[in-house]
Each structure stands twice: as structure tokens, then as C-alpha cells.
Amino acid sequence: MLHGIDLMARQFLAAQPWYDSLPVAEQEALQASVHTFLARKGEVLLPQGERVNGWYAVLSGLVLLESESQGQRRSAFIGMPDGEWFGEGSALKNEPRRYNVVALRDTWLLCLPQERFQHLYATSLGFNQYLAQHLNMRLGQAMTLIETGRMRSPDYRVALHLSRLFWRRTRQLYVTQEELGKLVGVSRQTVNRVLRELAARGIIS
Predict the structure, then answer these.
(1) 107 within 8 A of 64, measured Cβ to Cβ
(2) Which residues, listed in sequence order, are joined to residue 60 by a DSSP beta bridge?
(3) CA 164 from centre of chain
(4) Running DSSP on this structure, what letter comes out for residue 47?
(5) Which residue, 22, 7, 103, 124, is CA-closest to 56?
(6) Which H or E element spans position 112?
(7) Are 160 and 180 in contact, with CB atoms under 8 Å apart?
(8) Helix (H) or strand (E) segment spanning residue 101
(9) What's the pLDDT tens digit per position in 106-160?
(10) Could you tell me if 48 and 134 are in contact, meaning their C-beta atoms sit under 8 angstroms apart?
């Protein structure tokens, strides 16, 4: 009998929109191939420059994708909450990871191994359709972040990171001011001020 995180991983996979289109034998092979692992708050789960071993999803927790240059961390790329896949670009190109993946809180990740990812990419229409939609969403997020970083105020950036562009599944967020500050690249004090201003305007509660 499965318990805890193993059951969560199986349920997560079975809920993917491309899963039901796979033959039963393929579903069983997929379920047998994935694995999970835990990282504590502040830990680098996947280091920049390491060999990519597959496609990853956040089962529970919150991670930050950030680059590192000459040993110094720079601004974050994007945060990944529960239920989100990430790293598809590196998996498709089979190249070394181009960013660190850092746990902002205790986090469980699921890994779909590279061999299984490439097999699905080569054989499954449903998987490819989902991947195309997912990449299109990531492109939209990336373009918005580039524009925001160049042209917008910290207040706008905090508001953007609270939007459904990044939190698609819920209107009630369980994120601390510290976590939000790290995602946006501003101080907790700035986040606190912006949240109070947004609440005063009735935009959030």
C-alpha cells in the first residue's frame, strides 16, 4: 500500500492532461520510473551547471529559479509553486542546468527521468501538445518579467507576482512576505508596504 508522498506523486501524474492518452503499459512504466526527493528551506535542490536528469514538478512547497555568476547570486528568474513543472527547456536540449533551484520552504520535488521524458516527447501526441502549451505559458511569463524588470516599479513587480500569471490554481495564496520578497527581488519591508497599499485599495485582502 502506498502512503504519503508516493501516493501524492502517483495522483499528481494520473491528473496530468496527457496521462490518460497513454497506453496502460506506458502509464505503469511511467509511474514506476518517477522518483521524489525532499529539500529543506534554503537548500539548493538542483545546482546550476549540473547534468540534467529529467523534468521536475513541485509536489508541495515553493522553489526559486535563480542564476549565479562568479559565485554571487543574482536576481531570481521565477518562482514555482505546488503543481508546476519546470526545466523543460534544459530537458529538451539535454544541456547542463542554467540556474540554481532553491527551496524557499521545505519542498518535495518529483522527477520524470530524462530517458522517460525523451520517450514521451518522441512518441506521445498528447504529451507534446501539453508541452507546447506549457512552453507558450513560460514564454509569456518570461516576456512579462523582462518588461517589468526594465520598465516597472517595485510596487508593480510585487503586484505582478501576486497575479494569476504565476498562481493559476487558486485565489488564496499561502506565501510569506519573506518568500514573496525573494521571488520579486525586493526587501520584505518593500513587500509589506506594497501589500498594505494594495489592501487599502481593495485589490487584495
Answers:
(1) no
(2) 108
(3) 14
(4) -
(5) 103
(6) strand 107-113
(7) no
(8) strand 100-103
(9) 999 999 999 999 999 999 999 999 999 999 888 877 777 766 665 567 787 888 7
(10) no
The pLDDT score that the predictor gives to residue 127 is 97
Q: Comparing 76-90, 101-115, 119-133, 187-201, which segment has the lowest mean pLDDT?
A: 76-90
Q: Which of 138, 70, 64 is nearest to 101 (CA)?
A: 64
**Residue 117 in contact with residue 57, Cβ under 8 Å?**
no
Amino acid in the structure at residue 132: A
Torsion of CA 144, 95, 44, 30, to 10 degrees: 100
User: Which whole-number Å values give the CA distances from 200 to 156, 176, 192, 194, 204, in the listed order?
Assistant: 15, 19, 12, 10, 8
Q: Which ranges of the chain does DSSP label H, i.e. alpha helix?
A: 4-14, 24-33, 88-93, 114-123, 125-151, 154-161, 177-184, 188-200
Secondary structure element (H or E) that encloses residue 60, with its range:
strand 54-60
- Give every CB contact of residue 168 below 8 A, 6+ residues apart in sequence: none
CA nearest 55: which of 10, 13, 27, 3? 13
pTM of the model: 0.77
Distance of CA 99 to the CA centre of its chain: 13
Q: Are 16 and 130 in contact (CB under 8 A)?
A: yes
Residue with C-alpha cell 523582462?
146
Helix axis angle for 188-200 and 177-184, nearest 10°, is: 110
Contact 121, 131 (CB under 8 A): yes
